Amino acid sequence: QVQLVESGGGLVQPGGSLRLSCAASGSISSFNVMGWYRQAPGKERELVAVITTFGHTNYADSVKGRFAISRDNAQNTVSLQMNSLKPEDTAIYYCNLKVVSMDYWGKGTLVTVSS
After folding, report:
1. CA torsion angle for 99, 105, 106, 109 (degrees, to 10)?
2. Which of 1, 5, 51, 52 has the fewest other C-beta atoms within 10 Å?
3. How far, in Å, CA of 4 to CA of 88, rounded?
4. What phi and psi, each to the nearest 5 degrees, are found at residue 77?
């Protein structure tokens, strides 16, 4: 059983920064994709950024140049550095781990961007 635990959400002013972290535990394949998705009120969950075991990344257009995803394979952790935050970044951010055909999700952490 795989468990994902997120941390780092909170309230930040527009233009500010936050760093989200996610730790995965359990039986995890050596090759996997870890990432972050978010869901704003009244909207569907959307991809924010993902990173493979080999460091290949993919970002949503809306966050390119502002967010940076990284991971530590030895620790099975993934982080999301969020800079120049905007009110439209407000959402619940979910950590995700994809292993072959399996999808695992964290419980989510709330990010609120407001003055």
Report:
1. 120
2. 1
3. 25
4. -125, 155
Q: Is the pLDDT of residue 100 over 90?
A: no
Q: Which two tokens stand for residue 6?
A: 């997120």
pLDDT at 96: 97
CA 100 to CA 84: how far, in whole Å?
34
Is residue 105 predicted with pLDDT exceeding 90?
A: yes
pLDDT for the residue numbered 51:
98
52/41 Cα distance (integer angstroms): 28
pLDDT at residue 1 tops 90: no
Element (H, E) at 78: strand 77-82
Share of the chain above pLDDT 70, in %: 100
